[in-house]
């Protein structure tokens, strides 16, 4: 519980990660996106689904991610099959592709990135409740904020 209104409920981790570990954690785009999202949460807590959606959304904003997907949805191709039915199929394909992307991201987060961040003491992953709690790391946040500014601005 917060003692006063407006006070941050984020909890600071007890161990400061080394600079090598910080750069290793930030070397992967999905880990960075996860950390950007969790850092922006008022209490540092989110569900796996929320983290997955945030990572997928940030990747969709990348110039290389999703551009091919968007092109195929806009251009159903030449010929008689380019009618309303082909547009429905293209939208269904996009929806299917998005669900597959979400599943891949979620699986990679759960099996690779969240355990690595947890081992580093940056977050706590509760598999039973499917939640993640970010532990404030001032030395990590200095570089995280710089990376976020450079990458997403």
Automatic annotation (TrEMBL):
Positions in coiled-coil regions: none
Leader sequence residues: none
InterPro entries xrefs: DUF7344, WH-like_DNA-bd_sf
Region feature Disordered, mapped onto this chain: 60-90
Domain of life where this protein originates: Archaea
Domain (DUF7344): residue spans on this chain: 23-71, 93-133
The protein's name: DUF7344 domain-containing protein
Protein species of origin: Natronorubrum halalkaliphilum
Lineage: Archaea, Methanobacteriati, Methanobacteriota, Stenosarchaea group, Halobacteria
């Amino acid at each position: 519980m917060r003692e006063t209104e407006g006070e941050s409920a984020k909890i600071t981790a007890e161990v400061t990660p080394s600079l090598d570990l910080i750069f290793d954690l930030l070397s992967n785009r999905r880990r960075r996106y996860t950390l950007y999202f969790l850092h922006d949460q008022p209490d540092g807590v989110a569900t796996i689904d929320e983290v997955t959606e945030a990572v997928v959304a940030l990747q969709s904003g990348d110039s290389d991610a999703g551009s091919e997907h968007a092109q195929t949805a806009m251009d159903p191709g030449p010929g008689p099959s380019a009618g309303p039915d082909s547009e429905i199929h293209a939208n269904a394909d996009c929806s299917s592709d998005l669900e597959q992307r979400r599943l891949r991201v979620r699986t990679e987060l759960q099996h690779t990135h969240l355990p690595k961040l947890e081992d580093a003491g940056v977050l706590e992953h509760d598999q039973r409740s499917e939640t993640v709690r970010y532990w404030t790391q001032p030395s990590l946040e200095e570089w995280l904020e710089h990376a976020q500014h450079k990458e997403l601005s």
